[in-house]
Amino acid sequence: MTRPITAALDGSEESLAALDWAGREAVRRGLPLRVVHAWRYADQLATVDRGTQQGWASDGVREAVRAVAERHPQLAPAVDVVEGDPVHALVRAAAEAEMLVLGSRGHGPVVGFLLGSVGRQVIAEAARPVVLVRAGDRAAAEVAGRDVVVGQQGDGEDSAAALRFAFETAAARGATVRAVRAWTLPPVFAYSPGSLKLLDDAGGLEPYEKQALSEALGPWRERFPDVPVAEQVEMGSAGQVLLAVAGRAQLMVVGRRAHRTAVGARIGSVAHGVLHHAACPVAVVPHE
């Protein structure tokens, strides 16, 4: 089954930017575009019945979709106007999509995304990648010379989903993948005879980290031989190292593991930090 690229639309400027981004990406990847709008019946509008309110929602969505279809005549967007809780509707839509694209209000010229409660919950619970696009995002940012930056952590399996998404996106755009791995000095008690031998065989901590990144990238280099790859290993926290290269990125890709707490699911610290400080679109990819 061919999965669509799904954009969540609520009529805001940021959701219109997300729809534009999703339309361009659907054309590049040769995938269908789906647009989902979740609405709730406002019973306080006693003089307006449910059918009329649904009509208002549908009219606004179809007008925005018509504009995207005019810009991309090869697309025939599917539109779903769903009554109900937005989080449930969007998580369900994400499960059926190649990716879900959300708009997010930026809060400063060089500061990233201001996430509402719906966005936070959807990112934490979605089974598929979620892309956050700021209001004001333009196609001009997707230019040659800007990389698809992806954070790599752990071994190849740990980051496989994020690397796959980054390579697929770069292949569709003719872009370079910049794979970034951050490392820090472990506490002394973390060393064991086995880990010390691995470090000794690699020639030290930094060579070991470079080797780990190279090994994680190996399968994806073979699968996407035409995609240029830049490898970058830096000492520091993962969030800081990724944000240091965000200025040269047309898209930032980070993995995430959802952490369940008493108040619901939460995304990891790296994804949280990048989302709040990166100016480019950010894709949050759940680990497989």
TrEMBL record:
Residues annotated as domain UspA: 1-134, 155-286
- Per its UniProt entry, which superkingdom is the organism in? Bacteria
* Membrane-crossing segments per the record: none
User: What Gene3D superfamilies does the entry give?
Assistant: HUPs
What protein family is recorded?
Belongs to the universal stress protein A family.
Designated name of the protein: Universal stress protein
